[in-house]
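lol forgot to send this yesterday, sorry. struct tokens for the thing we talked abt
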């Protein structure tokens, strides 16, 4: 599960300086805002800051971390931390860095579209952009809402439609969700 998905510059620069030859940086056009670039750096899980690891393992006890990416976009720095829950299911946590603090902004997993709540599926079906998704990412937000990112066949880079469910009500988002 990988999403092409906010820490102080000083700490992040220190991380980049400490990256070994196996870690790679790249710049890509980010889908949410035209012209906004995202700088992506693969980070070895063993080199993640202890404070970040603590936040991740508190959120998903027993998580086995398989990899991480640092993403800098529009003045924000995120870490996408991927791995497996203790039951073996895949999970990704998007962690925002603000200064020396780390905050989980969403916890993601791939799901079959049939497992999404009926209210989300109904909202998507009633959209003028309705389609049968080839991939669905369920993104649980820290505010209690859940974003369903729907990917069209042949378009794996960004969601073609997003549905936000809050308090049992669904809305099709007009703009891609911030995180």
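and heres what i got for the seq, position by position
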């Amino acid at each position: 599960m990988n999403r092409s998905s906010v820490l102080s510059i000083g700490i992040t620069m220190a991380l980049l300086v400490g990256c070994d030859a196996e870690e790679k940086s790249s710049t890509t056009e980010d889908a949410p805002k035209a012209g906004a670039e995202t700088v992506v750096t693969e980070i070895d899980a063993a080199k993640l800051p202890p404070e970040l690891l603590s936040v991740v393992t508190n959120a998903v006890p027993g998580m086995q971390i398989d990899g991480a990416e640092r993403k800098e976009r529009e003045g924000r720095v995120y870490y996408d931390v991927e791995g497996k829950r203790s039951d073996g299911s895949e999970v990704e946590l998007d962690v925002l860095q603000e200064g020396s603090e780390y905050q989980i902004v969403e916890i993601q997993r791939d799901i079959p579209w049939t497992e999404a709540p009926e209210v989300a599926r109904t909202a998507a079906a009633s959209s003028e952009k309705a389609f049968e998704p080839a991939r669905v990412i369920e993104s649980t937000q820290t505010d209690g809402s859940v974003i369903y990112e729907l990917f069209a066949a042949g378009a794996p880079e960004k969601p073609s439609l997003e549905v936000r469910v809050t308090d049992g009500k669904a809305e099709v988002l007009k703009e891609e969700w911030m995180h």
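Residues 9-105 form one domain. anyway ping me if u want another try
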